[in-house]
Design goal:
The complex is a heterodimer of chains A (about 180) and B (about 550). With about 180 residues, chain A is of the alpha/beta class. Chain A has an 8-stranded mixed beta sheet with strand order 2-1-8-7-6-5-4-3. In chain A, helix 4 crosses helix 6. Chain A folds into 2 domains: about 140 residues, TIM Barrel, CATH 3.20.20; about 30 residues, no CATH class. The C terminus of chain A is likely disordered. Chain A is built from 7 helices and 8 strands; from the N terminus they run E-E-E-E-H-E-H-E-H-E-H-E-H-H-H. With about 550 residues, chain B is α+β, with helices and mostly antiparallel strands. Chain B has 4 domains: about 100 residues, Sulfite Reductase Hemoprotein, domain 2 (Alpha-Beta Complex); about 160 residues, Sulfite Reductase Hemoprotein, domain 1; about 90 residues, Alpha-Beta Complex (Sulfite Reductase Hemoprotein, domain 2); about 140 residues, 2-Layer Sandwich (Sulfite Reductase Hemoprotein, domain 1), CATH 3.30.413.10. Helices cover about 40% and strands about 15% of the residues of chain B. Chain B has 19 helices and 20 strands. In chain B, a hairpin with a 5-residue loop joins strand 4 and strand 5. Chain B is globular, with a radius of gyration of 23 Å. The termini of chain B are far apart. Classes of the chains: A alpha/beta (about 180), B alpha+beta (about 550). At the A-B interface, helix 3, helix 4, helix 6 and helix 7 of A face helix 1, helix 2, helix 6 and helix 10 of B. Bound molecules: iron/sulfur cluster. Chain A: InterPro entries: UCP030820. Chain A: Pfam families: DUF934 (PF06073). Chain B: Keywords: 4Fe-4S, Heme, Iron, Iron-sulfur, Metal-binding, Oxidoreductase.
Chain lengths: ~180, ~550
C-alpha cells in the first residue's frame, strides 16, 4: 500500500505477514496477535514490525518495544483520533524507531501525525489516488507554528514568544 | 482585551488559507463529502434546513466595538441584515453562501476573529462569566485562563479528532454565571484555603443533551501553573477511552459515569503524573503576558452613588425600571454593567440587526472602554459604564429599540433556533418564546413575578439548555405534531440542578397558559422576597405538578369534546 512521509512517497521495506512464522528474508510486519512468535522466530538482524489496533493498552506493548523496528497503528477512520494519543504514549515509553499511521487519513493530518510522533502514513489505494502527494506536503506546511508545547516538529508559538522575550532586540518574526 | 501578536495574526491568516485549500480539494474531488464535512464543521460551517450556517467564535464572549461593527457589516453584506447570538457566547449567521465563507473569514481575521472550532468533535470555543472583571465576588478574572485555553486548544494536533465535541467554561466568581457544572470541563478559580495560592477546582463530565448530568469534581485544587498539563491528561484519557461506538454515548460525561468519578480521576492523575509539566505548561511570563491584556481599564474615582442617576430616575420611571432589571453592580464605585436585552417582545431571542449591533458598538466605544460581552443568556453587556452615564445609555438604547427592561425576568427567554433553522429540530422554539413573552409582556407584572428563567430547546440536543431552566420547555414531535414537555426546578447557577418533568407533553398553543398556571402556584405560595426558584425548592414539585396536570388533562378533554 502507498506509504508517505514528510518528504514524499517512499518505498515500504516491510513485507506484511499474517502469521508469526517469519519465513521471509527481509523486513516483516506482523499482526499484534502473533508478535511473540515473530520475535522468537526472527533471524538476527532482521527488522520486525508489529501492527496494533488504536485501543491497545500501551503497557501491553511495553515489554516488546525494545525488540521492534516499526509499530504501525491502525486508524479505522480519519475521524478516530485514538491513534494520535497512542503514538504519544509509545514515544513517552521511549520507543524511538519507526512509527506508522495506517488508515484512510487525509492530507491535513500529516502535520498532526508528525507532531504526535509518527514518521509515516500508510494509505489505502483509494485515499492515495485522490490525494496527490503535493497536497500532503503543502498541508504539512499550512501552519508556521502551533500553540502546543511539547508536540511540534517546529518550535511552538509559546517557545517563539519566549525566545523573543529573551532577545528583545530581534524585531520581527522573520528572525525565526 | 486580548490583542493578537504577530504569531496569532499569522496563525489565523494561515487557518483561512487552509480552509480555502480544503474547499478547493473538496471541489476537485480530492476529498469526499464525508471527509470534507468534519473539516467544514471545524470551521463553523453547518448545513442547515434552508442554507449554510456560519458560527463565529466570540472567545469567552468578549468583543470590541470594532469587532461588533465588522459583524454588522457581515450581516449586511453576506446575510439578511441580522445575526443570532448563541448560548455559547458565539454569533451565528443563518444565510451565508458557501462560496462567500472564505471572504467572511478574511473580514473576521481583519478584526482578530475566526470560526475555529465552533463546531465538530474538538475542543470548542471556551466560555466564561460575562461579568468577568466586573463582579465583586471574583477571585480572579477568568478571561486570561480562557484565552490561554483558547490558544492551547486551537488546532491541537492530538485532540481534534475526539469522540465528540468538548466544551470548557471558566469562572472566577462565587456565583456561577458561566454554568460550569454543565460543561465537559468546568473550571472555577479559587484560593487554596491554607496557602492562599490561586488554582482551579476542576469539574469534568457535566453536560445537557439527551443525558443531562452535572459535572463531578475531579480535582479540588489544581495549582494555576499546572493547568495545561492537567488538561492534556484529561483530554488524553478521554480521547483514548471515550466511547466511539455510539454517538449518544460519546461525550466525556458518559465515560465519567461509566468508570465512576473516582476511577476517572485516578486515570487522569496517573496520566498527569507521567507528564513533564514544565515542558507543557505556559511559562509564567506567557501567563503574565496574556493577563496584562485584561488589566482593568483606567476607571475614574467616583462616588459609589451617582447623584445624576438618582435625579434622573426620580423623574423617569422607565429608566428606574431599566436600572432595576438590566444593571448589575460593578466592583468599582460609581460604575455599573449594563445588560442590553436581545429579548424584545415579539423578536427572536438573541437576534440583533446590523443597526442594533452598530448602536451597541457606539455605546461600547463611548461609554464602556470600547468593550462589550455576549452572555450565554443571549444578551449583550456593556461592562464598565459610569453610573452618571446610565441615563444617556438608556436613552440611546431606547432610540435603537434595545431598552427592553427584562433581564432575568420571565420574558428573558433563552431559545435555540429550533425548527425555523435547525436541521436536527423536532419542533419550533422561537415562536414558543414569542408567545410566552407576549403573554407576560406587561412590565409591571414581570417585575412582580421577579427572576424566572425560561429555557427552550427544539429537540433533545438541548442547545436551549432547557434542563437548567427554572422552567424548561423541550419541543418534541409526536405523530407529526409538535409537542412540548415542561420541566421545573432546573438551575444553571452554582446550585446546578436539572429540572423534572411535570407531566405529559402539551401542544404549542397551550404553552403560555401552562406557564401562567405555574406562575400562579408560585405567586400564591411565595414568602416575602422569595424568588420562583427558591419557592420551588422550598415547596417541592408537587403543587406545580398538580396544577400542571389538571390543566393538561382539561386540555385533552376539551380537545376530545
Ligand atoms: S436543541 Fe435541537 S433544535 Fe435546538 S439548536 Fe440544538 S439541535 Fe437544533
Amino acid at each position: 500500500m502507498p506509504l508517505l512521509d514528510r518528504h514524499g512517497w517512499r518505498d515500504d521495506p516491510f513485507e506484511r505477514l499474517e502469521n508469526g512464522l517469519v519465513a521471509a528474508a527481509g523486513s516483516v510486519l506482523v499482526p499484534w496477535a502473533v508478535v511473540a512468535e515473530a520475535l522468537a522466530s526472527r533471524r538476527p538482524g532482521q527488522a520486525l514490525g508489529v501492527e496494533v489496533a488504536n485501543d491497545l493498552d500501551p503497557a501491553a506493548l511495553r515489554p516488546q518495544l525494545a525488540g521492534l523496528d516499526l509499530v504501525s497503528i491502525v486508524f479505522p477512520s480519519y475521524a478516530d483520533g485514538r491513534g494520535f494519543s497512542l503514538a504519544r504514549r509509545l514515544r513517552r515509553l521511549g520507543f524511538e524507531r519507526r512509527l506508522r499511521a495506517r488508515g484512510p487519513l487525509i492530507a491535513d493530518q500529516l502535520a498532526d501525525a508528525l507532531a504526535c510522533g509518527f514518521d509515516e502514513i500508510e494509505l489505502d489505494e483509494a485515499s492515495a489516488g485522490r490525494q496527490p502527494i503535493e497536497q500532503w506536503l503543502r498541508a504539512a506546511e499550512a501552519f508556521t507554528a502551533n500553540y502546543q508545547r511539547g508536540y511540534a516538529t517546529t518550535e511552538s508559538i509559546l517557545e517563539r514568544r519566549r525566545a523573543r522575550r529573551n532577545a528583545p532586540d530581534r524585531e520581527t518574526a522573520g528572525a525565526f | 482585551m486580548y490583542r493578537y501578536d504577530e504569531f496569532d495574526e499569522r496563525f489565523v491568516r494561515e487557518r483561512v488559507a487552509q480552509f480555502r485549500d480544503q474547499v478547493a480539494r473538496r471541489l476537485d474531488g480530492s476529498l469526499t463529502e464525508e471527509e470534507f464535512k468534519p473539516l467544514r464543521l471545524r470551521n463553523g460551517v453547518y448545513l442547515q434546513l434552508h442554507a449554510y450556517m456560519l458560527r463565529i467564535a466570540v472567545p469567552y464572549g468578549t468583543l470590541s466595538g470594532r469587532q461588533l461593527r465588522q459583524l454588522a457589516l457581515i450581516a449586511e453584506r453576506y446575510d439578511r441584515g441580522y445575526g443570532h447570538f448563541t448560548t455559547r457566547q458565539n454569533i451565528q449567521f443563518n444565510w451565508p453562501k458557501l462560496r462567500d465563507v472564505p471572504a467572511i473569514l478574511d473580514l473576521l481575521a481583519d478584526v482578530e476573529m475566526h470560526c475555529i472550532q465552533t463546531s465538530g468533535n474538538c475542543i470548542r470555543n471556551v466560555t466564561a462569566d460575562h461579568f468577568a472583571g466586573v463582579a465583586a465576588d471574583e477571585v480572579e478574572d477568568p478571561r486570561p485562563t480562557a484565552e490561554l485555553i483558547r490558544q492551547w486548544s486551537t488546532n491541537h494536533p492530538e485532540f481534534c479528532y475526539l469522540p465528540r465535541k468538548f466544551k470548557v467554561a471558566v469562572t472566577g466568581a462565587e456565583e456561577d454565571r458561566a454554568a460550569i457544572g454543565v460543561h465537559d470541563v468546568g473550571l472555577r478559580l479559587l484560593r487554596h484555603p491554607e496557602t492562599g495560592a490561586l488554582g482551579y477546582r476542576v469539574l469534568v463530565g457535566g453536560g445537557l443533551g439527551r443525558t443531562p448530568i452535572v459535572g463531578k469534581v475531579v480535582r479540588e485544587f489544581l495549582p494555576k501553573a499546572e493547568l495545561l498539563a492537567y488538561l492534556e491528561a484529561v483530554m488524553r484519557v478521554y480521547n483514548a477511552e471515550g466511547r466511539r461506538d455510539n454517538k449518544y454515548k460519546a461525550r466525556v460525561k458518559i465515560l465519567v459515569h461509566e468508570l465512576g468519578e473516582e476511577e476517572f480521576a485516578r486515570r487522569v492523575e496517573a496520566e498527569f503524573a507521567q507528564l513533564d509539566g514544565p515542558s507543557i505548561n505556559a511559562d509564567p511570563e506567557e501567563v503574565a503576558r496574556i493577563a496584562a491584556y485584561f488589566a482593568p481599564p483606567a476607571y475614574e474615582s467616583l462616588p459609589a452613588r451617582s447623584a445624576r442617576l438618582e435625579a434622573a430616575k426620580a423623574t423617569n420611571p422607565a429608566l428606574a425600571g431599566f436600572v432595576t432589571t438590566n444593571v448589575f453592580p460593578h466592583r468599582v464605585p460609581g460604575y455599573a454593567a449594563v445588560t442590553v436585552s436581545l429579548k424584545l417582545i415579539g423578536g427572536a431571542p438573541g437576534d440583533a440587526t446590523a443597526e442594533q449591533m452598530r448602536a451597541v458598538a457606539d455605546l461600547a466605544e463611548r461609554y464602556s472602554f470600547d468593550e462589550l460581552r455576549v452572555s450565554h443568556h443571549q444578551n449583550l453587556v456593556l461592562p464598565h459604564v459610569r453610573q452618571d452615564d446610565l441615563p444617556a445609555v438608556f436613552a440611546a438604547l431606547a432610540a435603537a429599540g434595545l431598552a427592553t427592561a427584562n433581564v432575568g425576568l420571565v420574558t428573558d427567554i433563552i431559545a435555540c433556533p429550533g425548527l425555523d433553522y435547525c436541521a436536527l429540530a423536532t419542533a419550533r422554539s422561537i415562536p414558543i418564546a414569542q408567545s410566552v413573552a407576549e403573554r407576560f409582556r406587561d412590565p409591571v407584572r414581570q417585575q412582580e413575578i421577579g427572576p424566572l428563567n425560561i429555557k427552550i430547546s427544539g429537540c433533545i440536543n438541548a442547545c436551549g439548555h432547557h434542563h437548567v431552566g427554572h422552567i424548561g420547555i423541550l419541543g418534541l414531535e409526536k405523530n407529526g405534531i409538535e409537542n412540548y414537555q415542561i420541566t421545573l426546578g432546573g438551575d444553571a447557577s452554582e446550585k446546578t440542578a436539572l429540572g423534572e418533568r411535570l407531566g405529559p407533553g402539551i401542544a404549542a398553543e397551550e404553552v403560555p397558559e401552562a406557564i401562567e398556571r405555574l406562575v400562579e402556584v408560585y405567586l400564591a405560595a411565595r414568602g416575602a422576597g422569595e424568588s420562583f426558584i427558591d419557592t420551588t425548592r422550598r415547596i417541592g414539585l408537587e403543587p406545580f405538578k398538580a396544577a400542571f396536570q389538571s390543566f393538561a388533562r382539561k386540555e385533552v378533554q376539551d380537545a376530545a369534546a
